[in-house]
Amino acid sequence: MKEKIRALREKTETAMRETETGRALYELKTRFQAELKSIMSGMKDLPKEERPAFGKLINEFKEDMEAQFEARAAVVRQKEMEAKYAAEQIDVTMPGRQYRPGALHPITLVKNQLIDIFSGMGFKVFEGPEIETDYYNFTALNTPKDHPARDMQDTFYLAENLLLRTQTSAGQIRVMEEEKPPIKILSPGRVFRSDDDATHSPMFHQMEGLVVDRGITLCDLQGMLAEFARRMFDASTKVRLRPSYFPFTEPSVEVDLSCSECGGKGCRLCKGTGWIEVLGAGMVNRRVLENCGVDPDEYTGFAFGMGIERIAMLKYGINNIRALFENDVRFLEQFR
Ligand code: PHE
Predict the structure, then answer these.
(1) What is the DSSP string of 86-153?
(2) What pTM was computed for the model?
(3) Of the ranges 8-17, 150-159, 279-288, which one carries the lowest mean pLDDT score?
(4) Separation of CA 179 and ligand 1 centre (Å)
(5) CA of 253 to the centre of ligand 1 (A)
(6) Ligand 1 atom with least separation from CA of 284
(7) Residue 308: which pLDDT band, with cuts at 50, 70 and 90?
(8) Which of 4, 46, 185, 328 has the smallest number of CB atoms closer than 10 Å to its CB?
């Protein structure tokens, strides 16, 4: 018996000195207790008179070992803390990690600003589909097949009557079919034309505006655009309407803003004219209202459509439209 206790003590004390973690110590203690229990169970085989002395011995052993376990636990805890602190130490002299926050794309910036300006005037946003039928993109907009105005917009056809919309004006029809006047919508989105040079891209963005109500006139259009120009550029920006032609508006106008570069004196940007063309607009053609079941004798309206890229290029002084689509971060970072 005594021999067994001595062996267990020696074995346990040696192992204990090597424990480095609370977990290892706990496992050792569990093993020790099991073995101690098995020694104690041998007590019943001892002669009766030897039992008290043995009981005393085993109790002392147990208490001593428990004290040792406790002492070792304190040491191990300290060791673990030290290891943890060493691993988590912060070197305040190390250079910081660089964060490179993203930025909104200039097209998104201008689009959001347009929505902001016009929603302040009571416009609601409507988004139409990018794949359109020939009817919504052309025919309902008073541009039937073989109409020469179709040549103004070189179209990507997907099928006989299905195409990539060439203009957000298609949204005008969708809205007027769904809603009764008064109507006041803004329709942003991608449009597509087979066109590619320094100022044209086969995919670009437009922002359409449509107002239909009783007594709407060209003056309302002009006033609204003047407010838009002041807020998008600056308070001194002037608006000029020039006669033009679109099948879906009558009369139609081309809208120019006074050149932001030279203030109207004439420079390279405005090609010496002092004016820069920014959008097409006009009074909604009676035929278009009729096509949508709106009585043209009761209601009138105006519509306008502008290229978002064009506004962004003017606002930020970008001279090649490709810069907007190449996604060169050195370019995009400037809009942070
Ligand atoms: N949809 C025309 C274009 O893309 C612009 C426009 C919109 C003209 C609304 C008049 C009215 O060129």
Answers:
(1) HHH---TTSPPPPP------HHHHHHHHHHHHHHTTT-EE----SEEEHHHHTGGGT--TT-GGGGGS
(2) 0.71
(3) 150-159
(4) 21
(5) 10
(6) 11
(7) very high
(8) 328
